[in-house]
Backbone:
DNA sequence: TTGTACGCGTTATCAC
DNA sequence: GTGATAACGCGTACAA
């Protein structure tokens, strides 16, 4: 344990024989002081280990050179990659980033909005887990930026996201091109608007090529199900007499579980069934057979989000309201030949 | 964009026809008001969406019901699992957790210490990337808790960590028990004190059983190397005429890469070589063959860390200075038979 | 360069 | 028991 008496700007001013205003100017390099006073002040600050009180600073300036990122789950590769690139951008621009983990709990998301708001952050980015964002999330006039998820909101918030629908469309069409005709869609539990987007890409591609795709070709895992449920669901689907020669999944883990189900039913990947995952997570490279997948571009998304938020904070002009990133297909063994 | 005028406690007081003191008391449930005024005040707060200004509150009380977690990389399963359980604990206790990602940059770690300090957080937990912690990290008298990594420090900080050395010892001995005699140790780049701990467990087990283990049986990957380097290093080791029938790695990814190297040299796992990973990450279950690994207990560690920090914040007595968690072995196909 | 009013919630003191 | 008044904490920015 350390035991320190807090040193305030008043102490420093007294010890250096100047006013608090001068100390403040030295700290902020805002001029209005001589070389000598600067050195005197700096040496006193060093000697007593003074750290300026951010609470007082933000109370006065209602800015803190701090931004918040609210996200559902730092334990998810895609999200945490976004977070890391955001952090790097803001660090480079002398801002601090505070990351808040909501555990996919909408209530907690709102609590963090209020907390960041009351901590006087200069802006907030959110990968929301709410379907609807109310306008009372923050009380101050700070920018809010939506990343990835785009819940309904009445505030015309700026958005950085990826074109998941087209990504799913391309993946589905790729399987069709390779001769698949009975392609099913396996979806983990997702908020309504997320799920709809992804499924629509699949449905549109199938219908474009006059292939059957409807409720009966979609396996929707219920909320709270684990990966073993996916394996079981695929087996049950086959046991019910349905044919499969292609699977599109909403995550790599779903795809890997689906492949386990296929294996237990004696079906080979990619010879009998071709499989697409989603998000190009590490495990898609490591599993056997290696998994074809859809790559969003989390680093670029994070960087664009951070850049946009900083522009909003600085109240610059002509900031695009919506940035949508393309998805690309990464083909590996699970869709070979 | 939202455009709001900030509502302050003064506005609420005026609108409710009471003083700011009363509003404050209602907010903090500190008594001294009647049911009627309470309802009146609450309805005004609701109506105008008032959020108390944390900067002002922490300026006065030098507490913010907020704690910080500084960590090297949220993109790492082990760390982020710790973080999630810390977050859950503090949320349950009505604290907010701000997570700061240092990218393994000691300078940045120090910057975040100062920022959290000046934001008046009530305590800081750190998975440090420094070898030495100076005592000027924070200026106020707040508790700091070390998690996992235990750099040298002069402040007698509390520690929550795991007994990695014994874990490595047990894994090595397990391979010896299964008949391995030429066991090598493959280490990714790690800070000195981390690496030493892990390697010592391996060395002690080998020496206890009179098996050769020294510089020549340790593959140390240089800083900044990627997984392909591990694969190559294993191949080169074999090409140099060395024998391998067991491998202990400092991460699951290292182990998976090592297995790829073995495969390319025509060696089978587990028949010819048995392999241990480290940390029981998702990929250890998914790879083929599935990987035996060492499980630390990140959830329990996170929970213990959070509990300890809260006790320190509340200045309770008899808080254990050091909590060390055991590691357990998880045996899968890579060490079978 | 400096003095000082200001921002806003908390809490001790005081009045009824 | 209820509620108001005012001092306080500390950095900022404008006026002097």
Residues:
């Amino acid at each position: 344990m350390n035991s320190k008496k807090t040193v305030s700007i008043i102490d420093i001013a007294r010890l250096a024989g100047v006013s608090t205003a001068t100390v403040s100017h030295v700290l902020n390099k805002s001029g209005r002081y001589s070389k000598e006073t600067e050195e005197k002040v700096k040496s006193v600050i060093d000697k007593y280990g003074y750290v300026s009180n951010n609470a007082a600073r933000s109370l006065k300036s209602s800015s803190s050179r701090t931004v918040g990122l609210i996200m559902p789950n730092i334990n998810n590769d895609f999200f945490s990659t976004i977070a890391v690139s955001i952090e790097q951008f803001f660090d480079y621009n002398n801002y601090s980033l505070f990351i808040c983990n909501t555990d996919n709990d909408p209530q907690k998301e709102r609590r963090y909005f209020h907390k960041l708001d009351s901590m006087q952050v200069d802006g907030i980015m959110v990968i929301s887990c709410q379907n609807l964002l109310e306008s009372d999330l923050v009380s101050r006039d700070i920018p809010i930026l939506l990343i990835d998820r785009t819940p309904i909101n009445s505030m015309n918030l700026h958005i950085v996201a990826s074109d998941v629908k087209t990504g799913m469309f391309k993946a589905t069409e790729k399987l069709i091109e390779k001769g698949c005709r009975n392609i099913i869609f396996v979806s983990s539990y997702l908020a309504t608007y997320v799920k709809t987007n992804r499924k629509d890409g699949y449905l549109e591609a199938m219908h474009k090529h006059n292939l059957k795709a409807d409720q009966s070709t979609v396996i929707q895992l219920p909320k709270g199900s684990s990966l073993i449920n996916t394996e079981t669901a695929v087996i049950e689907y086959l046991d019910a007499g349905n044919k499969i020669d292609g699977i599109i999944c909403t995550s790599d883990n779903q795809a890997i579980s689906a492949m386990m189900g296929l294996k237990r039913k004696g079906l080979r990947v990619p010879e009998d069934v071709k499989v697409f995952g989603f998000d190009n997570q590490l495990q898609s490279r490591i599993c056997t057979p290696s998994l074809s997948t859809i790559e969003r571009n989390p680093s670029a998304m994070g960087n664009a989000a951070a850049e946009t938020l900083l522009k909003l904070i600085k109240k610059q002009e002509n900031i695009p309201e919506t940035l949508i990133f393309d998805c690309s297909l990464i083909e590996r063994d699970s869709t070979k030949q």
User: Anything to note?
Assistant: The radius of gyration of chain B is 26 Å. The domain at 9-52 of chain B is CATH 1.10.260.40 (434 Repressor (Amino-terminal Domain)). Chain B touches chain A through 66 residues (CB under 8 Å). The CA atoms of residues 24 and 181 of chain B lie 71 Å apart.
